[in-house]
Specification:
By secondary structure, the chain is of the alpha/beta class. The protein has a single domain, classed as Rossmann fold (3-Layer(aba) Sandwich). Helices cover 32% and strands 17% of the residues. It has a six-stranded mixed beta sheet with strand order 5-6-7-3-8-9, sandwiched between helices. The protein has a three-stranded antiparallel beta sheet with strand order 2-1-4, covered by helices on one side. A hairpin with a 6-residue loop joins strand 8 and strand 9. The longest helix has 14 residues.
Amino acid sequence: MHISHVVLHHERFPTADHYPFCLPVLRQTERLELNAPITFFVGENGSGKSTLLRAICRRCGIHIWEGMQRSRYTVNIYENKLHRATEIRWTNGHMPGSYFGSDVFRDYARVMDEWAAADPGQLQYVGGESLLTQSHGQSLMAYFRTRYRVPGVHLMDEPETALSPASQIDLLNLLTAMSEDGHAQFLIATHSPILLACPDAKILSFDRIPIAAIEYRQTNHFKLYRRFLQNPNAFIRHQNGT
């Protein structure tokens, strides 16, 4: 593993009243052991998994593509400061890497297309074809196949968002192949039960306090999908209270 541990220094938390520093799961977690080539962060929305993923990314010195910045009605000045209380412990020294966020990928694709208009060679970094001429899912897979050939630490936030089930299986196979022989280490925040089924991956649940490793079949995602697929009509009626 390129990264062996992530340590949270609670004494550096600047507040206990604002997100993400108010989250019990972060306040009561001291460290994460990353002893698998692929580690998944799993949990409900708002559990802090994506926020911690970005904090790790910033602490590793990996650029996060932010896209176009827009005005917000309410600004949380603490939202992006978790990295200041996060320590990365490397196994054999610092490694380069990348960050993927599904929420800004289309903006990235548009900028890449503008660069390619002046220098077509830029497209070789994303599979050789404009990302905008492909479907959203196709462009994601083209990017993944090219980017993850590069050794290092790769962080992904909900990569399944625009992928069909078949494409998620393709991504699962790609992750497995690229993580072999210490080539790459992946940290992935996901809701996908397909990706979570990755053999030999470690799953860290943010629905437990402190954050803890969990088996695939014990995740809420697996249980929910299994119940739904076994009897979708009954499940929907149950959820509606009928």
